[in-house]
Write a structure and sequence with these properties.
1329 residues, alpha/beta, 7-stranded parallel β-sheet, 30 strands
Length: 1329
């Protein structure tokens, strides 16, 4: 397949375009394109939601001095830890206390007013966040008489405690998405903004005792953008040359070993800044607060503890490198790849492998499809992704993954496949949760092969606090890895042979199953088996088989009856809806109904003939009614009265004018210019309307309005319907005469017309009747031989194969580690120090690292901190949650890849910074990119320029990398199988956002009341303390957490709310509770907003919707109408909130509401009503007590199960759910699969000693799933084709941990109890999930 090239790119030089693009992306990464474009990293104290984000440490002089002191010893001091209450506090200064004491001693009469004034004056001079609260507290305590000695009281009064502020900041970290802690050192103030000059990332952990521990990052950073921004502004204002030399952004602390080395380095930067700004230089670590300023700018040695977005500094370094390469004119592979990426997008159509991959997969037999090499179960889409990745030129792959469809599982499969084939993989994302999930999935599989309680697997996670590289090479861990590798080496030949044998067994067993199933090789037999259960479920109670057997052509008669009843219903409904004819008001029997129809048809035909013969045109038919007829007659009478003998209408002009106006007002659609001029025609027309009125009176009993017939010109249409009704009635009466018992069972009574329009036949389609005819025609002539299908060991074989492949894959990783350690011990130590210091890894060591650790996981923002911009260093780069990764963030990662895989979902959130970027600023800056691009294509022909000029818009930062890659992908697919939640949980998103395309694979074995819950809260009437909060809902959720704890709940819990203030309120109460550690450690509790929950999943999700009965606040968060998103501000974002927010739960969604769903406006209310409908509808699980005793096989199958020794021994652990609808799960895999709508399967749930559940599907007579009627199937391929398709679908469901035990009528002739017992023992006592 050749690459398609639209034009010759030789005439396009991308250099200028790439230079401008790098500058554009760097500006975005540094400023976020805010409206006035100041640097985004600055001190604001509170963010726009009013959440504390910065603590000014100058309020705590000792602490400020402590942090400045860290610069002297290069942060080598003992860790800053165990910060608790009263460690750093602010109290009233001694001089203030003494002043008040003096007033008390000398001026008792004026003590109160003077003391208050002193306190007020003191607070005016202080920048304290809580001074109003303190003043109020002192005043109230004084009024209450609690303060006997004000001076003594103030001397002990704590105005502010660092612990309280730090606790608030720590809780806010739990609330804010993608935020990290930083210590800011020194600040520069310009135009009311305060920017840090230096900063260092830190981690802050809260101990079980509630104290805080600080840990400093090994990289110190310079806020270059802020310094450059301010200095450039000053230079422009003062018309002086802007020349200020700054070192690189990253300062690696490991470089500084001697005392004061770092301090001197930073002091030099401050000296240069002061010199440039014309300020007196100052010592950074002065023992006193220092501030120098002029009328433009101020510098100080203040420090701050801050929360801020995770840094993009490493990305900036990558773009700086690219920019310097481009400006220098050097030949560089990295630049070449960047250039190719852009030119491919602009000028080429990508080579597509989608059809080739699909055809290759479909051409495989079911044996080949199911015998795949993977240590985890894979579905069709995932296997095809792996196949696409193996294609030589398939370098860019896009995978669309709606919520819960296994994106992480797919990533894990790609990584495993790469490792088994000794290829390297880099996995990046901007979501920590996405990285955590993939790392956990990889380790879960590798841990199957651990020989000890714990092994640090050789998967390197960079940037994580406990980075895995150091742990891997700890001697005790390395010894375990080496031992595991040696174990495999000793058994390598045996394991390889076992893998081959298991694959051969799987193929053989499936082939045998296909052959046995195919032994039923006639279409007639197959159809009989397929349809038998359907007949029993749908038709057995509706027909009398004895009667049908004894009546000639009974199947045709049934078909004739269905046709007649369907036609009757259609014609009756049409007449009722269109002409308001209600026959049932005056007739009850079918024969009487026929008499009325004939009579009415006669009258309408007569009317129609009269109109055709006598009235070629009618003026007033569209507006005629009984009242209008009287008015018309009156008008004609008055007109006649106005006409005088001889003189006619002379002298009646005014009266005529009034009459004409009245007439036109009544019949304004008639088009009659003058009633006087049309008098004769109108008089004749009046006779017709009087005739219609008489007909109305005659047919008033059925509500017929002949004026409506005239208006709709409906005579012919009604006559046609009436004639069809008469024919249908004749056919019904004819069939009823021959098949009276069957007609009675169907619910048809010729003495009751109502029974015709409510007939049970109407629920069936023509295809259903055709299938019934076919079944009945072969019912007495087809018999089947007893065939026993062999029992498949597919699940056990797959699990054994997966374990062997894990062992093999682990050995590949272990071997790389052992070789690296043995051959490059010094390099290993050097890398350990480099990674610990967060230094960029030298290129020579990077190659060795990737060889030794072919799987690396890192945040996309931290990629450049560790891994140099080395082209093609990784065989595969995977970008997860790509809709949230901006194009600016992604390019550096792509440049490091030979192949790139991008996973995301356009119906979930986009990049927040890109979304919030000012449109005006972005357009202004991007215009420079477009201008340079336009100049770079001037050498192309006009037509070529026209073709590509608009493509450059896709390099805009408003686009995600998912948007960008779609147009240059070699392979694109969608994941459709949803694994996270049950059908009822994901149903809303599936229906509203994915048009029911998702195939829900998780089988529900619990009551719908456990899956969906509504809790209605009645809030107090008193106003809430904070805007957009609901304290009553918070209290309920806290009680729920306590209840879960008391019940010993084992699982994860999340809380989602639309409002940040409610999130903050819940967070405060959770972390103020005595059980916060349990909630955090055992429940993995996370409190989120709809905006911050993407990428998370929890067993239980509580939704606190906040809105009360007198409020309408959810409209600001969610859309009013999904069909009008373009008309709403942030309409798409509001819709995405619904999709993302309501798709997080795995086991249960629990709505905490202060308002009925029906009373909540907009789409949020509709979503809640959707879940309420599912919550209130009859539950499949409750069918256990409603088993259909008329069904032959349900009691038989149930009776067999309870006879097995396994059931007898374990009946307290077993729950059986009859009529389980496995068909709906199979139909999700293939909507065209022929599955009857009735329920014929059981779900058996077995709970072990640890209360873990294994579920087994008991299926009776699976033959019905094998066949369906499609045009391309013929007698030569019918049997095998559909048997193989059914087996593939069933094995897919089994691979997700739901084994089938299949029973059929043939197995019942042997010893079915033994067969069932063996399978139950085999499946229930082992964990196949």
């Amino acid at each position: 397949m050749a690459r398609l090239i639209i034009m010759d790119k030789i005439s396009f030089n991308p250099k200028g375009f790439l230079i401008e693009l790098c500058k554009y992306y760097m500006e975005f990464l540094e400023t976020d394109f805010k409206e006035n474009r100041p640097p985004s990293r600055r001190v604001s104290v509170y963010n726009k939601e009013g959440i504390l984000t910065d603590i000014d440490l100058a309020k705590y002089p000792k602490l400020n001095q402590y942090f400045l002191g860290l610069l002297s010893d290069n942060f080598q001091s003992a860790p800053f830890e165990n910060i608790g209450k009263r460690d750093f506090i602010i109290k009233f200064p001694e001089d203030i206390v003494n002043q008040i004491k003096e007033i008390q001693n000398n001026s008792p009469l004026f003590e109160k007013s003077l003391s208050e004034q002193i306190i007020i004056d003191f607070f005016k001079k202080q920048n304290l966040p809580n001074k109003d609260v303190v003043k109020k507290d002192i005043q109230e305590n004084t009024k209450k008489g609690k303060v006997k000695d004000l001076a003594a009281y103030l001397s002990e009064y704590i105005i502010l405690d660092l612990y309280d502020e730090l606790y608030d900041l720590w809780k806010n970290k739990q609330v804010l998405d993608k935020q990290d802690f930083y210590i800011y050192f020194l600040d520069i103030r310009y135009e009311n903004f305060v920017y840090p000059i230096f900063y260092i990332p830190i981690s802050i952990e809260r101990t079980d005792e509630g104290k805080f521990i600080f840990e400093f990052d090994p990289v110190f950073l310079i806020n270059k953008k802020a310094i450059q921004f301010v200095s450039k502004k000053i230079a422009d204002e003062q018309n002086k040359e802007w020349k200020i030399n700054l070192p690189p952004r990253h300062i690696y602390l490991s470089k500084f070993e001697g005392k004061d080395e770092l301090l001197k380095y930073l002091q030099g930067i401050i000296n240069e800044l002061c010199n440039f700004f014309g300020l007196k230089s100052f010592q950074i670590n002065s023992s006193e607060p220092v501030g120098v300023k002029n009328d433009k700018v101020r510098l100080s040695n203040n420090c701050y503890l801050s929360l801020f977005d995770k840094s993009d500094e490493a990305l900036l370094n990558d773009y700086e490198e690219l920019l310097n390469l481009a400006l220098s004119g050097e030949e560089a592979k990295t630049l070449e790849i960047f250039s190719k990426l852009s030119t491919d997008y602009l000028f080429e159509n990508p080579m597509s492998f989608e059809r080739e991959v699909e055809q290759e997969y479909d051409s495989q037999s079911v044996c080949e499809k199911l015998a795949y090499n993977s240590p985890i179960p894979l579905n069709k889409e995932q296997l095809q992704v792996l196949r696409a990745l193996d294609k030589k030129d398939s370098d860019r792959i896009v995978i669309e993954g709606p919520p819960g469809t296994g994106k992480s599982h797919t990533i894990t499969a790609i990584i495993y496949n790469a490792l088994l084939n000794k290829k390297s993989v880099l996995m990046v994302s901007d979501k920590k949760e996405a990285l955590d999930v993939v790392e956990e999935k990889i380790n879960d599989v590798l841990d199957k092969m651990k020989l000890e309680d714990f092994i640090q697997n050789p998967i390197v996670r960079l940037g994580k606090k406990e980075n895995t590289f150091a742990g891997i090479f700890k001697q005790i861990n390395y010894d375990k890895i080496k031992s595991r590798f040696n174990t495999y080496k000793r058994h390598k030949e045996q394991i390889e042979k076992e893998i081959d044998n298991i694959l051969a067994n799987i193929k053989s067993d499936i082939k045998n199953e296909v052959e046995v199933s195919s032994s039923l090789n006639t279409i007639a037999i197959n159809h009989l088996l397929v349809y038998e259960d359907t007949f029993n479920a749908l038709w057995k109670d509706l027909v009398d088989l004895d009667e049908l057997e004894n009546v000639e052509n009974s199947p045709e008669l049934l078909s004739k009856l269905w046709t007649a009843v369907s036609q009757f219903y259609k014609d009756y409904a049409c007449l009722f809806q269109n002409y308001r004819i209600d026959f049932l008001a005056s007739v009850s029997t079918l024969s009487g109904f026929r008499t009325i129809i004939i009579s009415l048809n006669k009258d309408i035909k007569a009317l129609h003939k009269k109109i055709i013969d006598q009235y070629p045109s009618l003026y007033l038919s569209k507006e005629m009614s009984k009242d209008n007829l009287l008015f018309l007659e009156d008008c004609l009478q008055r007109l006649e009265e106005l006409k005088k003998p001889i003189i006619g209408y002379l002298f009646c002009g005014k009266q005529l004018e009034i009459l004409e106006n009245q007439f036109k007002e009544k019949f304004f659609l008639s088009g009659v210019e003058s009633i006087r001029n049309c008098k004769d025609e109108l008089s004749a027309e009046t006779q017709l309307y009087k005739y219609c009125q008489k007909l109305n009176e005659s047919w008033a009993n059925i509500g017929l309005n002949f004026f409506l017939i005239l208006k709709e010109n409906g005579c012919e249409a009604i006559c046609k319907r009436l004639q069809q009704l008469a024919i249908a009635i004749d056919d019904i009466l004819s069939v009823n005469e021959k098949l009276p018992i069957t007609c009675g069972k169907i619910g048809m009574n010729i003495l009751d017309v109502n029974s015709m329009i409510s007939s049970k036949l109407l629920r069936f389609q023509e295809d259903d009747i055709s299938e019934l005819k076919r079944y009945l025609n072969t019912f007495f002539i087809v018999s089947a031989e007893s065939v026993k299908l062999l029992c498949s060991n597919y699940i056990e074989d797959r699990k054994t194969l997966e374990n062997r492949l894990v062992f093999k894959m682990t050995s590949i990783l272990d071997e790389s580690v052992v070789n690296f350690r043995e051959n490059f011990k010094n390099d290993a130590e050097a890398l350990r120090k480099i990674i610990r210091a967060k230094k960029k890894i030298p290129k020579d060591l990077l190659i060795k690292l990737v060889d030794a650790f072919p799987c690396l996981i890192v945040s996309i923002r931290e990629l450049g901190e560790f891994i140099p911009l080395e082209p093609n260093i990784f065989d595969i780069v995977i970008i997860d949650e790509a809709s949230q990764v901006s194009i600016a963030q992604a390019f550096p990662a792509i440049l490091r890849a030979r192949k790139v895989v991008v996973l995301g979902d356009e119906k979930q959130y986009s990049n927040v910074k890109s979304h919030n970027a000012s449109v005006a600023v972005n357009n202004f800056l991007f215009n420079s990119v477009k201008d340079v691009f336009q100049r770079s294509i001037l050498s192309l022909s006009d037509s070529e320029q026209e073709r590509v000029k608009d493509k450059v818009i896709n390099f805009n930062i408003k686009n995600s990398i998912l948007d960008f890659m779609r147009n240059i992908t070699n392979y694109q697919c969608s994941l459709k199988k949803h694994f996270r939640g049950y059908i009822e949980i994901i149903g809303y998103s599936n229906e509203i956002f994915y048009q029911n395309a998702l195939q829900v694979m998780k089988i529900r074995g619990k009551s719908i009341k456990d899956v969906i819950q509504f809790h209605y809260i009645k809030p107090d009437d008193k106003p809430e303390k904070y805007k957009n909060t609901n304290q009553a809902e918070v209290d309920f959720i806290i009680d729920e957490l306590q209840r879960l704890k008391s019940e010993g709940f084992k699982g994860t819990v999340g809380i989602i709310t639309p409002f940040t203030n409610q999130q903050k309120l819940i967070t405060n109460q959770v972390y103020d509770s005595e059980n916060w550690q349990l909630y955090q450690n055992e429940f993995k509790l996370k409190i989120m907003t709809f905006d911050s929950c993407q990428g998370d999943e929890k067993d239980i999700i509580y939704y606190s919707m906040v809105e009360k009965s007198n409020e309408d606040i959810l409209k600001y968060i969610f859309p009013i109408k999904l069909t009008n998103l373009d008309e709403e501000e942030d309409g798409n974002l509001k819709a995405q909130r619904l999709n993302v927010g309501f798709s997080r739960a795995k086991e249960s969604i629990r709505f905490v509401l202060s308002k009925n769903p029906e009373d909540i406006r907009g789409e949020a209310g509709k979503a809640l009503q959707f879940y309420k409908r599912h919550h209130e509808k009859p539950d499949d699980i409750d069918i256990f007590n409603k088993m259909d005793l008329k069904s032959k096989m349900e009691p038989v199958l149930y009776n067999l199960v309870i006879q097995t020794p396994f059931y007898i021994e374990n009946k307290d652990r077993i729950e059986i759910i009859p009529q389980f609808d496995i068909g709906r799960y199979i139909k999700q895999l293939n909507p065209l699969a022929h599955i009857p709508d009735y329920r014929s399967d059981f779900l058996l749930i077995y709970r072990d000693d640890l209360n873990k559940t294994n579920m087994v599907i008991l299926e009776y007579d699976g033959f019905e799933h094998h066949f369906k009627d499609m045009g391309f199937v013929n007698e030569t391929n019918f049997d095998r084709f559909y048997i193989e398709e059914d087996i593939e679908r069933r094995k897919t469901i089994e691979s997700y941990g739901y084994p089938f035990i299949r029973m059929n009528k043939f197995l019942l002739r042997g010893d079915p109890v033994v067969h069932l017992n063996d399978d139950l023992e085999r499946y229930c006592k082992k964990n196949f999930k």
